[in-house]
Design brief:
By secondary structure, the protein is mainly α. The protein has ten helices and two strands; from the N terminus they run ββαααααααααα. Strands 1-2 form a two-stranded antiparallel sheet. The N terminus is likely disordered.
């Protein structure tokens, strides 16, 4: 594919991915926008938002990932997000934050009790998917729903690397469109195949320009 995404270092705590127009999406800026969105929601979710300016807390969530673009930046860099890159990055950040509340180290939301974290995570899933539905992108809704389900299966099996690869490949499918290769990778996850991790990594790399 054209318009590959590429990592640009993380020394200042920000992932950068070159989008198809040559501009750069700043993951730290996307998290600030996510914080603003959740504060605007009010209620429980707003009460759990971390205070602004805590760089150490922001970095904690991304520390569980290998160096490289975040899922949100991957999705926003693709041609399917053309003209709406900021919206795609924000909604995928919301969904990914929901996933981190369930299984990882969230960057924006702080829930000290497990049951509250699960509720907050579900709400973030809903917020992101609702915004995607409003964009009329049914294919991306399906891909992210699959990503949520498959990453949960991987986490349940203790396969954290596979869960991360599922998110990278799912974001690739949102930004660049699904492929037969990605469909095969998803089927391998459902089958519990030992080939699933390699297949998901290959699917994610297709859009990042590393193949």
């Amino acid at each position: 594919m054209n318009a590959p995404a590429s990592a640009d270092g993380r020394g200042a705590g920000a992932d950068r991915v070159q989008d198809g127009a040559g501009a750069f999406a700043d993951a730290r800026g996307a998290l600030d926008k996510l914080r603003e969105l959740l504060l605007g929601e009010g209620g429980l979710i707003a009460s759990l938002v971390r205070g602004d300016g805590a760089d150490g807390e922001r970095g904690a969530g991304t520390a569980t990932r290998a160096a490289g673009p975040s899922p949100a930046a991957r999705a926003a860099a693709g041609p399917r997000a053309e003209g709406r890159r900021e919206e795609y990055e924000l909604l995928v950040e919301a969904i990914y934050e929901g996933y981190l509340l369930h299984y990882g180290r969230p960057r924006v939301v702080c829930a000290r009790e497990a049951d509250v974290g699960v509720l907050a995570g579900d709400r973030l899933y809903a917020i992101g998917l609702e915004r995607l539905v409003a964009l009329g992108d049914a294919d991306a809704v399906a891909e992210l729903a699959d990503t949520i389900t498959l990453s949960a299966l991987a986490q349940g099996s203790g396969e954290k690397d596979l869960a991360e690869a599922i998110w990278d490949a799912g974001a690739r499918a949102v930004g660049w469109g699904a492929s037969a290769e990605h469909a095969r990778a998803k089927a391998l996850v459902l089958e519990g195949s030992h080939e699933a991790l390699a297949a998901m990594r290959t699917s994610a790399e297709t859009a990042s320009g590393t193949r």
